[in-house]
Amino acid sequence: MGASESDKDRRIGRRALLVGGAAAAVGTAVLARGELAHLWWRLPGVQKPRVEGAVDFKGALWVAASSGNFRTADRPDDYAIDRVIIHVTQGSYASAVKVFQDPAHQAAAHYIVRQDGDVTQMIRELDVAFHAGNREFNERSVGIEHEGFVDRPQDFTDAMYAASARLTAGVCGRYGIPVDREHVIGHVEVPGTDHTDPGPHWDWDRYMGLVRRAERA
Ligand SMILES: [Zn+2]
Questions:
Q1: Which member of 32, 193, 199, 206 has the lowest number of beta carbons within 10 Å of its beta carbon?
Q2: Element (H, E) at 206
Q3: In terms of pTM, does the model score above 0.85?
Q4: Long-range contacts of range 22-29, CB-CB < 8 Å, 24 or more positions apart?
Q5: How far apart are CA 156 and CA 162, in angstroms?
Q6: Could you tell me which residues come within 8 angstroms of residue 132 by beta carbon, excluding any fewer than 6 positions away?
Q7: Protein residues near ligand 1, an ion, with CB under 5 A
Q8: How far is the CA of 100 from the centre of ligand 1 (A)?
Q9: Cα(59) to centroid of ligand 1, in Å?
């Protein structure tokens, strides 16, 4: 993802310059709106302002999940986030996107990491995604799907491990989650689950090493 990442950086840089010029012209109005938004933040039960299409992981593609597959929340203010939960889709990327957009599915994760290392975000980290099959663990976690099947080790590509590790390191950094196997867990480790993902071929030692390296970068 090296080359495409730097392309994105350049595009954002150019747009930031344009927006900066416009903001200077209407400085007072922007400031007033900023203060208002700041006050909203402090009122209990009022959601943080959201920007349509915004992502929590830089470079992620935003594809909205159906509202039937998550609950709007205001994390980490209403629920502390202290877990990252690793999943495997048991299907293609396209099929995972499709079911997460289906309100009847009643499950979806925040992110899908593809075998080519591209990351799609479908639910904001603010919100409670239905991915763990356990209400308490849904409320306290960020869920990351990986494109592939638990019995096909070749599905877990170098690009996937690297991208997912950067993603998990970012989540841990945002919420002060320790990078260890108590806090970065598989779906199989969620209390009460009958799911087995990510399965025996997920290389936890390698993954945690990559997360620690990404965290220091
Ligand atoms: Zn799972």
A1: 32
A2: helix 204-216
A3: no
A4: none
A5: 10
A6: 85, 138, 141, 143, 187, 190, 193
A7: 87, 187, 195, 197
A8: 13
A9: 24
48: CA distance to ligand 1 center in Å? 28
Out of 1.10.1040.10, 2.60.40.10, 3.40.80.10, 3.30.70.2190, the CATH code matching 61-216 is 3.40.80.10
Contact 84, 185 (CB under 8 A): yes
Cα 213 to ligand 1 centre (Å): 25
DSSP codes of every residue in 82-150: -EEEEEE-SB-HHHHHHHHT-TTT----SEEE-TTS-EEE-S-TTSEES-SSSHHHHHHEEEEEESB-T
Please state the domain extents for the chain.
2-42, 61-216
Distance 131 CA to ligand 1 centre (A): 7
Tokens read off for 216: 């220091």
The reported pLDDT for the residue numbered 41 is 46
Per-residue CA distances from 68 to 24, 57, 99, 111, 154 (Å)? 41, 23, 11, 16, 33
Distance CA 141, CA 124 (A): 12
Q: Which residues of the chain have pLDDT under 70?
A: 1-47
| CA 143 to centroid of ligand 1, rounded, Å | 8
CA 149 to chain centre: 20
Which pLDDT score, from 0 to 100, does residue 47 have? 64
> From the CA of 199, how far away is ligand 1's center (Å)?
10
88 C-alpha to center of ligand 1: Å? 6
Residue 52 confidence (pLDDT) = 87
CA of 22 to the centre of ligand 1 (A): 45
